[in-house]
Amino acid sequence: MHPCLDISNIQRLPAGIRRYAEAAVQDSFKFESMLALTLRYDKLPDAQRLLVLPVLYHALDECNIPTSLDLAETQRHALKRQIFVVLKCFQGMGTSIARGVAPKDATPEIWPRILAWVLFLDGLWEQIPAFYVDGGQEVVLLRVLGIIAEYADPAFFQDLLDKSELFVLVGSLWRRLTFKQYSDSLTRGEAPFPYLSDLLVVIPLERIRDIANARVNVDLVIHKTFESILAGAGTLSTLAEMLVISISRTATEPHLYLRGQNQRSCLSEPIPDVITMIGALYVFGHLMCFGNSIEPSFAHHLLAAGVIPALVAAIRAEAFEPDAGVPTDTTFDHSTLPVLRRWRLLGPSWVFIFLSKLITEPGLDHRWMIVEALDAGLLHSLICLCVNTKLMQDASAVSTSIINENDVLGPGCFSDHTDKVKRLLGLTLPAYSFYYSVLAALRDAFIDVYALRSDLDEYLSQIFDPELLHVWHLLRHHVNQLFTIAEYKSSDSAVTRFRACDNLACNKLLPRTQLKQCSQCLDTLYCGLACQRADWRSSHRERCKLLAPRNLEYRHLFIRPDLSFFRALMTCSFSQYRYSLSLSLARFRQMHGTPFHEIYIHFTFLNVTERPQLKIVDLASDEATRIRELFTDVIDRVRESEGRMQLHVLDVACGPQDEDDSDSNGDPQDHDNRISMPMPLRFASNQYFSRLNHLVECNVVQPMVEPLYFAEIQRITDEMGGWVY
Fold first, then answer.
1. Per the database record, which ranges form the MYND-type domain (predicted)?
2. What region does 153 belong to: left with phi over 0, alpha with psi -120 to 50, or beta?
3. What are the tens digits of pLDDT across the range 449-474?
């Protein structure tokens, strides 16, 4: 036994405290003596704490762990009192180890007894959740586990990592804490998530540096830690829910972490300071990145748990006001404010990095994720992040004695935030905007952001760099244009012989034959010359230049991915068709249970303009009859173009595709296995026929795996994007 754990050490205590120590040793189950001793323990000087440590160790050694949980009511009451004593001993031992009172070489002797009780309590509260001792019971266990991991000597810590038992317990405790109701520890003033953050990532990574073996594989350690936490959590979906709930509570309940809060738990630990709380966001974002790299399917579980709104809310809550969460009491050391501000941005920074990675994850439906993020306030969060980045870059009061250039919180940590913001903002550019849902969410997000303050444009010019500001205004301008067009195209008047004047200030509904067509782009109709001139001065001049068939400038814009919103501007006229196709395809797969390698796509070209060069489907055939019945209004529109348009039909089919598939006999069951979308195309130039024939030759007639299928759909729609009317 280590000398510091010798029970005879209590004889050197002062008489007052020695009386309680001797009574506790004589009867470890004497609740009053142990309670009086542990309550006085925090107020003792370090020298006397070391002398009391054998009493705490003896109590753990003498308290017998029940072998059965089938206990009578009186036995349960006695067990609760015993567990309370054990928890108070945990607190005392943890404080002694953390303050360096207990020698490090004594930890291996203390750990087996602590581990045995933690395993028992974890199993007890797992089987009997109603076995309630105190609101802070799980937090005490997390606290002592964290102290053991942080202050143990390197050899003992390496042994803990190899056995992985510590982090299995952490995962189990974390799961139970996360799904606890608010009536439990959270309302009693406890703040468990910062303790979790220390245990989950910070402590393992920091302690790895202390391990003597410099050849340790950090990735392997992280992998083992994650697998151990997963074993304690149960499943990937449960772990994903735990992360989402932890992020939400950490970001949206800052009052739990402020100093000076009244704590009603008898086992209350000192609440971590604000910097530790904000660091929890950093850790949870870090852990999501680890999990996603170790288990590729983890991203899908996170999405199902609602991670995107939680991430956006965390960014917004922690980055919105740079001084939010700073205690207002007079004892707060405001000299640490620059450090605090950097921590405030560091947490959202990692959450932001994971959000951007998640939205760009291959194989995921980015459109609905972007809509979800926009609805949760993504634009607000981007502005908040830029505001804090600007504050960090302009903060001149940061002392080099507090923050080093090479520190994780150093000035270089935030140098690329503008690029991150620009990249995520670029994801919302209308590369996806032909989907009406994204347009609507973007439009509502802009309205919401500009409702914040009347001088927002001037305010943004101070915090955005010029290039980002240009992208911001361009995005807003084109979103408004695209939304107006998409809204009109989905209206009832768009499918009748009536059409509204394209001058938005007029918007008068007239028969198409009475409207005057723009002679440059042939795309807009006006009720008179006055409306045409007014619209030309306001906005049409730019669009007309892009849409003019004889102007090839717009073709260069399609090639540049950073200007993909121009492509959306060209394809917006048929946004409802593309959106309907994606919805129909989802229903199609669900109805037939068809894997992607059995789905085929091809184009059918229907000649309604009497141009024999492209007459692929005979007007008298059953296929032409089916198309005319499905798309009567579209065919009428093509006929009214007086030879300037051609009707194409995009077909998605299921099952084997024969050579004469396009000449179907009209069997209703065959039609159920096909999705057809009309795509009226303009004759843009003399190169039209050659490009069209090239596209026809590239029809898909062989089974494809899912990624190739999406790639082919994207290629065809992108090629046709420059031709649509």
1. 503-544
2. beta
3. 787 677 778 777 776 667 667 667 76
